[in-house]
C-alpha cells in the first residue's frame, strides 16, 4: 500500500495551497518553490506514487492532466510563447514527492531541457 504524501492533504484541502483547478479526477496548484514565473503542479486525485505505477485504468486521469495543463497555460497567458511539461520519476529523475505530478513551467525563456548532473 503506497503511503500518502502532502499532496493528498492538498487535494483534501487539509493544508493550504493555491489551488487553480480541481475536478473529480485532478487537482492543480501553484508550486511552493516556483522555478519560473509560472510553475503549477497538476496531479491525479488518487495516489499514483511514480510514473512506473501508471496503469491503463489511470489513463482518464492522465489525459485530464494534459487537458488541464493546456487550459491553465492559456489562462496564465503563456500558451503562445510556450512552456514545458515535466514529470520526474524516482532518484535519477529527481522526484521528491511520491505522488505523480506534472510540472507546468513557463513565463520566460527556459534553459536547455537537460543540464549536466551536479
Ligand atoms: P519533484 O521534484 O518531486 O518532481 O517536485 C516536487 C515539487 O513539489 C517541487 O517543485 C516542490 O517545490 C513542490 N512541493 C513540495 N511540497 C509542496 C507543498 O507542500 N506545497 C506546494 N504547493 N508544492 C510543494
UniProtKB/TrEMBL annotation:
InterPro entries: Histidine_triad_CS, Histidine_triad_HIT, HIT-like, HIT-like_sf. A motif (Histidine triad motif) lies at residues 99-103. Pfam families: HIT. CDD domains: PKCI_related. It comes from the Bacteria. Residues 6-115 form the HIT domain. PANTHER family: HISTIDINE TRIAD HIT PROTEIN (PTHR23089). This is Histidine triad nucleotide-binding protein. The gene is hinT.
Amino acid at each position: 500500500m503506497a503511503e500518502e504524501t502532502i499532496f493528498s492533504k492538498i487535494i483534501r484541502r487539509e493544508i493550504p495551497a493555491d489551488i487553480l483547478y480541481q475536478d473529480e479526477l485532478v487537482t492543480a496548484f501553484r508550486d511552493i518553490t516556483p522555478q519560473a514565473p509560472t510553475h503549477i503542479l497538476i496531479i491525479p486525485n488518487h495516489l499514483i506514487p511514480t510514473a512506473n505505477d501508471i496503469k491503463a485504468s489511470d489513463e482518464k486521469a492522465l489525459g485530464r492532466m494534459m487537458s488541464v495543463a493546456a487550459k491553465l497555460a492559456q489562462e496564465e497567458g503563456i500558451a503562445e510563447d510556450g512552456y514545458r511539461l515535466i514529470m520526474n520519476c524516482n532518484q535519477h529523475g529527481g522526484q521528491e514527492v511520491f505522488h505523480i505530478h506534472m510540472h507546468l513551467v513557463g513565463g520566460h525563456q527556459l534553459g536547455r531541457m537537460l543540464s549536466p548532473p551536479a
